[in-house]
Design a protein that fits this description.
It is a single chain. The protein has 16 helices and 14 strands. The chain is globular, with a radius of gyration of 24 Å. With about 500 residues, the chain is of the alpha/beta class. The longest helix is centred in the C-terminal third of the chain and has 37 residues. It has a six-stranded mixed beta sheet.
Length: about 500
């Protein structure tokens, strides 16, 4: 398989900064009684003992069932995706994907060769979306995206030929909340991730893209509309038929899995050729029995969606750094951590990101110099070795809780599937595909998640559950779903 890559905008968020900090003023290197008390209290409130993890898993399962039955909002959202079949491997031809999930979008071209050759080649480009287009009109945003698509196709240089009258087909991976109405249509519920584009909410995003492609005279049609979790499931299952669940653990989080149509009461009467459908759990909305601190509650109260997405706010990359910052600010105010004056920068929300936690967590130097440099650069504080060790304890506590709860959520999904299949999950190899920068780049988080799954399932069952990293699966998955839902007969 050949792969070519063009990146027009690249970001490496998990690289630690190396600028040395200034000399620390002499302060006591002993851990104060108040510091010990605050750290002990934090660890107790964030603790995830086995009974708590089991409660989270059990409740996740029961709220999944409630959401599959409910049309009035009880339980998890459990959104039908109208993806009835996953790629089989027989797909042939040239297919495209547009992956829009944040401040960049990716365009992919995938050449499929059927059972024998599978993916022959993959080419992609990444384009940064200017900030002014994130708050522009719908037409302006989608015209920019369609122009990027047109430029990408123009570079094919006549290499790929389509029969007269045949359109190029594209999978649209769109990771914003939509109410899906079919495999190739979905109404935007709201923008998130800093977007505030006018004229799109309440409209079919596929229609918006199709209209923009027509304005660019681009002969293309959207064959599948999916979110990044569904794309990850399709991309991973294409290579491994044992994949049952897909999870995104990055800035945000979600999980999806394959469900029997007969187990979705709210879709009574819906016909599926396979008897199955991928369900997007929207598990970020889960909140039952989570171990929360005053710092979580204050962060939630200050958020744009207070009282919502509590699970996401305890396990995903957007929030872990901010929770830690709030803890450190409290320790600075209550016990003069970092000295008698409190840094203004440390008082700034989200000044400390999860990538910063990750970089500090990897510091194995004797004097924790990376920790010291990051605290100085990002939070504007001088620190001695004892204070840096306290910072690492805070980071580890928050990250352990997040990874452990994510593991419990995964077990909850598997438990639900096991109960319905009567032994088809834990009795044989079952794969959970995970994508996202948090899982990929944060080793300690990854370890805590895996440990949580093993602790909950026990040795025998956990030996059959395989957790695999599926890097960039959502884009290729979008192209594969465009192929499996092609309007043209597959040979």
């Amino acid at each position: 398989m050949s792969v070519s890559v063009t990146v027009t905008s690249a970001v490496g968020p998990f690289l630690p900064r190396s600028r040395r900090r200034s000399t620390t003023a002499l302060r006591s290197s002993k851990v104060s009684i108040e510091q010990k008390r605050l750290l002990t209290k934090l660890k107790q409130e964030c603790a995830t003992p086995l009974p708590l993890l089991q409660h989270v898993a059990d409740t996740m399962s029961s709220e999944m069932r409630a959401g599959l039955s409910s049309v009035d909002g009880s339980g998890l959202p459990m959104i039908p995706t109208y993806v009835h079949t996953l790629p089989t491997g027989n797909e042939k031809g040239l297919f495209y994907a547009l992956d829009l999930g944040g401040t960049n979008f990716r365009v992919l071209r995938v050449e499929l060769g059927g059972k024998d050759d599978r993916v022959i080649s993959t080419h992609f480009e990444q384009v940064s979306i200017p900030h002014d287009l994130m708050i522009a009109t719908s037409e302006e945003l989608f015209d920019f995206i369609a122009l990027g698509l047109a430029k990408f196709v123009a570079k094919e240089d006549g290499k790929f030929h389509f029969p007269p009258g045949r359109k190029r087909e594209i999978g649209f991976t769109f990771s914003f909340p939509v109410k899906q109405t079919s495999i190739d249509s979905g109404i935007l519920i709201k923008w998130t991730k800093g977007f505030a584009v006018s004229g799109t909410v309440g409209r079919d995003v596929v229609v918006c893209l199709n209209e923009a492609m027509e304005r660019q005279r681009l002969d293309m049609r959207v064959s599948a509309l999916v979110n990044d979790t569904v794309g990850t499931l399709a991309g991973a299952e294409y290579y491994d038929n044992d994949v049952k669940v897909a999870v995104i653990l990055g800035t945000g989080t979600n999980a999806c899995y394959v469900e029997q149509i007969s187990s979705i009461p709210k879709l009574q009467g819906h016909v599926s050729s396979s008897g199955k459908m991928i369900i997007s759990t929207e598990w970020g909305a889960f909140s039952n029995g989570l171990p929360l601190t005053v710092f979580d509650r204050e962060m939630d109260a200050a958020s744009i969606n207070p009282g919502q997405q509590i699970f996401e706010k305890t396990i995903s990359g957007m929030y872990l750094g901010e929770i830690a910052r709030r803890v450190l600010l409290n320790m600075a105010q209550e016990d003069d951590l970092f000295g008698s004056s409190v840094s203004q920068k440390l008082s700034t929300p989200f000044i400390l990101g999860t990538p910063d936690l990750c970089a500090m967590h990897q510091d194995d130097s004797g004097d924790l110099q990376i920790v010291g440099s990051l605290l100085y650069d990002k939070a504007g504080v001088e620190s001695n070795l004892t204070e840096r060790k306290a910072v690492l304890e805070v980071c580890d506590t928050i990250v352990k809780r997040g990874g452990s709860l994510a593991g419990a959520g995964i077990v909850g999904i598997l438990q639900k599937m096991e109960e319905d299949s009567k032994g088809d999950i834990f009795g044989k190899r079952s794969v959970v595909a995970i994508d996202g920068g948090l899982y990929e780049n944060y080793p300690q988080y990854r370890t805590y998640l895996q440990d949580s799954v093993k602790e909950l399932l026990g040795t025998e069952k956990s030996n059959n559950v395989v957790i695999e990293h599926s890097k960039d699966g959502s884009g290729i998955g979008g192209a594969l779903l465009a192929a499996s839902n092609s309007m043209y007969k597959q040979d």
